[in-house]
Write a structure and sequence with these properties.
Length: 281
């Protein structure tokens, strides 16, 4: 959806923009499909920080999105398109013909009153419908893709994301992921048709530290601005370079920036047909 820019009435407004929410049709979520989400602040069960630069953030409820959509061959009507504070794309509240309500990820173009269906057989190729990849016509865009059949969608769930269905080869389906990687997944796995909504979310300029604070993100400090005890890049007079090191290091002393982190000969290498393209500066 379009991004809204306010007049620069304050220094914080001058550099920021917000989501317009023009596609959202309901303000409050379905009470039966929300639960309390307690903040972890990047800590494990012993209270030790395992992920840095995180805090609690604004209080929010978790919407229980159905990534599996296991009610097959039962038509559902879209009741509302809603904002979800826990993810980028919009979510749709659907009601099956037997009265059961559920949340699903909303693709681009899905509107209130539309009908969607999930089936193990071939169904109409329209946005929001879900079926096994062996039934999907070649070249269509898909999202919420199952890696393990029956487990629910795990791949391509971000705002504006989609993968392209390339074809079927033996027991596997070939998909081209948003990164450009081409990989194999089981052809019995389910996938939804379409492109996920809210693609303009990546264009939002958050503008000031306060908005990042509400998102649960703490400020980050360059390592070379720290003391030697806190970071391998620390120390020296003023804003000095990192010194006589072989390359940049993380706070834990491991090589960083451009270093491959994927394990060699990983078990899933056999499913990757083509690696993603390397980023160029």
């Amino acid at each position: 959806m379009p991004i809204k820019v306010y007049k620069p009435t304050t220094p914080g407004r001058r550099k920021s923009s917000v989501d317009s929410f023009s596609d959202v049709t309901a303000k409050n979520p379905e009470k039966s499909l929300v639960t309390i989400l307690r903040p972890k602040s990047g800590r494990n069960n012993q209270g030790v920080i395992t992920v840095r630069h995180k805090r609690g953030g604004a209080k929010k409820l978790y919407r229980m999105v159905d990534f599996n959509q296991g009610k097959y061959d039962v038509e559902a009507e879209v009741l509302t398109i809603e904002y979800d504070p826990n993810r980028g794309p919009r979510i749709a509240l659907i009601k099956y013909s037997d009265g059961v309500k559920s949340y699903i990820l909303a693709p681009e173009g899905l509107k209130v009153g539309d009908k969607v269906v999930s089936s193990k057989n071939l169904v109409e190729a329209k946005a929001g419908n879900r079926m096994p990849m062996l039934q999907i016509p070649i070249g269509l865009f898909i999202y919420n893709i199952e890696v393990t059949p029956g487990k629910g969608g795990q791949l391509v769930r971000g705002a504006g994301m989609s993968a392209q269905f390339v074809g079927v080869e033996g027991d596997y389906a070939l998909i081209k992921l948003p990164s450009g990687e081409i990989r194999k997944v089981r052809k019995e796995g389910m996938a939804s048709l379409g492109i996920l909504s809210n693609a303009d979310r990546r264009l939002i300029r958050w503008g000031k530290a306060g908005r990042m604070y509400h998102r649960g993100i703490k400020p980050r400090v360059n390592g070379k601005n720290m003391n030697p005890v806190d970071h391998p890049h620390g120390g020296g007079e003023g804003h000095n370079p990192i010194g006589q090191k072989r390359g940049p290091r993380t706070v834990y002393g491991k090589a960083a920036m451009g270093v491959k982190t994927r394990k060699p000969s990983k078990w899933s290498d056999k499913f990757i047909i083509k690696r993603r393209a390397k980023k160029t500066a």
